[in-house]
Amino acid sequence: MKTKAIVVVLLLMFIFIVPVYGEDTEAEQWEKVRQMEQLAERFKAETGFTGESINIDNSGRIKSVTGTFQGISVPVIPDTLVIRQAFTSIRNRITPFVDAPIEQLQNNRVYRVGNFWTSSFEQVINGYKVHNGRLSITYSLQRRTFNVANSTIIIPYSTLVSKLSYEDALGIFNSNVDNAFKLNDVPLSRLFASNVYCDVNKYKDDENPEYRLCWLIGVEKTMAIDAITGEIYYNVFTELVHLSKPAKSEAVDASSDKDVKQ
User: Fold this and answer.
1) How are the residues of the chain apportioned to helix, strand and coil, as percentages rounded to the nearest 5?
2) Residue 145 near residue 52 (C-beta atoms within 8 A)
């Protein structure tokens, strides 16, 4: 009942907002409520989930859940192996409800912080990570519940291999930023470069996400460079640290407008 209540409350909020922007009738909106309830019930039935909260989008993919899974238990004093086995079992159960197939989700390190055990399954395609694509799982020792957060992306398997080396990407970066932002220490600057699948439309409000194999590089300025063609997709200021995402309203540096793919 808690799950149903949460789903209904979220969608009631949606009902009062949507008429301003869309033309769905009240009947259509309530049909969406019914469909969301069905998706929540299906998730619970197929995964053995019993929980405090469940967030599922209208395509049937989970965004986050907090609760327990039938048959997956953790002793009062667990070790790393027990936690890893529990997390792997959860990943295996919920894979039909995330955007990445199980073969794209690779184990990361399991570690403990206070009363929480945590880890993630990074989304990897042909050896390249998907930027911010992961399935994160945390276990609370005090509440004895799991929290699962899903940020995986639908990306078909690809055999693409980066044609640009790190040195190539660094050269393109330094040729397209002011002196104050250049990375001159080649070995050290490698810490600020990632060869990953990234959303090349990240800073375009009106376009859907499009993931391509890129070099993400920079500290105060972040640049996305196509790892096959060398094309620059964006060249923007970074808010705090490397790869953090500025607000979409933040203006792109006028001196680098020519570098942004139109």
Assistant:
1) 35, 30, 35
2) yes
Provide the pLDDT for residue 103: 95
132: CB partners within 8 A, 6+ apart: 151
- The H or E element spanning position 92 is helix 80-94
In the chain, what are the domain boundaries? 2-150, 166-259
Q: Vertex 126, ends 159 and 93: CA angle to 5°?
A: 125
CB contact set of 173 (below 8 Å; sequence gap of 6+): 182, 183, 217, 218, 223, 225
Query: By C-alpha distance, which of 156, 143, 144, 165 is closest to 215?
Result: 165
Taken in order 115, 121, 123, 128, the sign of the CA dihedral is positive
What is the identity of the amino acid at 54? Answer: I
CB 165, CB 177: distance < 8 Å: no
Residue 100, both tokens: 């990445």
- Angle between the 80-94 and 26-47 helix axes, to the nearest 10 degrees? 140
**CA 40, 41, 42, 46 torsion: positive or negative?**
positive
Name residues whose C-beta falls within 8 Å of residue 189's C-beta, 6 or more positions apart in sequence. Answer: 170, 183, 217
The region of weakest confidence among 176-180, 181-185, 239-243, 247-251 is 247-251
**Angle formed by the axes of helices 2-21 and 26-47, nearest 10°:** 150
